[in-house]
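So, could you explain this one?
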Amino acid sequence: MMKYCILLTTISFSFAAEITVDASAGRHPISPYIYGKNNCLADQASNALSKAEWQFLRDAGVRIVRENGGNNSTKYNWRRKLTSHPDWYNNVYNHDWNYAAQSLQHNLPGVKGMWAFQLIGKAAKTSAYNFNDWGYNRSQWWEGVHNNWAGGGGPDQGEGNPDLYLENWPPDSTVGILEKWFGNGGLGLDPGQFQYWNMDNEPEVWHGTHDDVYPQPPPVEEYMQAFFDVAKKAREIFPEIKLVGPVATNEWQWYNWNDNKISSGGKNYVWLEYFIKRIGEEQQASGIRLLDVLDIHFYPGESNTRDILQLHRVWFDKTYNYPGANGVKRAGNSGWDNNIRQEYIFERCRIWLEKYIGADHAVTFCVSEMGIQGNNPNVTACWYASTLGVFADNGVEIFTPWSWKTGMWEALHLFSRYTKSIRVLSQSDNEENISAYSSLSPDADSLTVVLVNRTSSGNEKATVSLKNFEISDGDYNSFMLANLPGSETFKSHTDNALKSSLVNVADSAFEITLPSLSITAVQLKGKGAGVLPRPDRYNLAFDIYPNPFNPGTTISWQLKKKADVKLEVFDVNGRHIKTLVQQSQIAGEYRYRFSGIGLASGVYFVRLETGNQVSTRKMTLLR
């Protein structure tokens, strides 16, 4: 009998990811302010940035800086240029926001700055009662027990007296910085550069970070009333301000106030839902817009490489089972549902915004602080690139990470310098590991496709097919980040880790090999089909010469496309006085000069409406 031996072998096949980029689908403007960072500037002339440091920020492509100091902003006193540091025994130290803002305007006039209003009701008064932290521990940051030793306290004395180093700080005081910065006789800062303002910082944990003021969490409605009071006063002074809040602390606090749901009207709400609901109710009652950008913080605890590389899915992906899901388990109908693992926090907020404010709410999103675990620069760069891509895809307005790790400068530079301003749709059949984020120039003659390979070992191939973009066969430039070392490689726009090469396009497609943990930007020249998006909110430039804080008698506006325009004047009580212009206007610049219309000297509000966009300016008319 003949015997046969059959050898079975396992053959593994590697398939190229199939990616489609449609240059006419999913178009919307990408906010330049996702290219941001915390803590870039000096707030004392004695510690001024050098010319090289300013140039570094320009080269990296930073577009917005958040300079309020996080927890240190809550008790900032702009009159005295002091604030109380909760992580240093509540000691009071000098901080000059005026200097920081002036230096930003002088050195980076195209970069936005974001500071903060104080809602807690107290501000630093004096440093005369500081605890001697140098003698105690050489001024080291403490962690754990909340030692409120400023104001006569100490290890043997116990808690200090906050009344000695803090003073009352009502809404009029906190918003007074607007007149100081922009008003007559003030610093002369450009209000357009300083349009974004945080509504304080992390109020859900004030009983930990600021327990000298709130030993117990403030009642949620007390906080909401403080928010409303400051927002209304800020809007009255600066109608075009961008109010950014509530600046929620972390994943648990996205859903919990005082570690639980909020009971109201016989129903229970998670925190951000309740916040949005109350904003909608108060806007309806007052007729005043109280929120422009919804802002949250995120400090995930995941240290596993694979989990870090999927963090970009926390924001909008309804299918992603996030291993760090915790507070979200309150988001069901019951008090706690352990089966809820899909976070999609910004998508949830979109649903709540439409439910409580309306489909035309126009509120955008911001992550003004974030920090991840791990120190692998390639993992960090791929997480950051993936987040920038997802934020561009979904219209997030601001991203300013707090913790800054090696690899982030390189990724920031690649995105801010080599991508375009209009997002278009990209789809991958292996989205978990390989994603494409694509953008089109305003003239539709240049398309950048950024490819992120999140696999941790081995090269991956991708085939990219282009739709609705006329392109000639040939070689096109690409720029790649891969194999980053542990030390910082980004020095300048011309001295960095980017590796350039050519990609061959044939029949509107190209194949490319992507190293593990890499980011590649492919720049293509051609012509996109159709008309590019010009949303009304990007259509209008509107001003009272020379700015809302020093107005004259001329109103100017600029239209980027044809629109039905209505220009109206209201008194300070909101009563309609006169319609000045009501007609259809083509794209162009327009001016209205006040003369002979019977208005006495005084304060008025001018409202300009174009389509679904409404802009308001405060005007002081002098006769």
Observations:
- The chain has a mean pLDDT of 90.
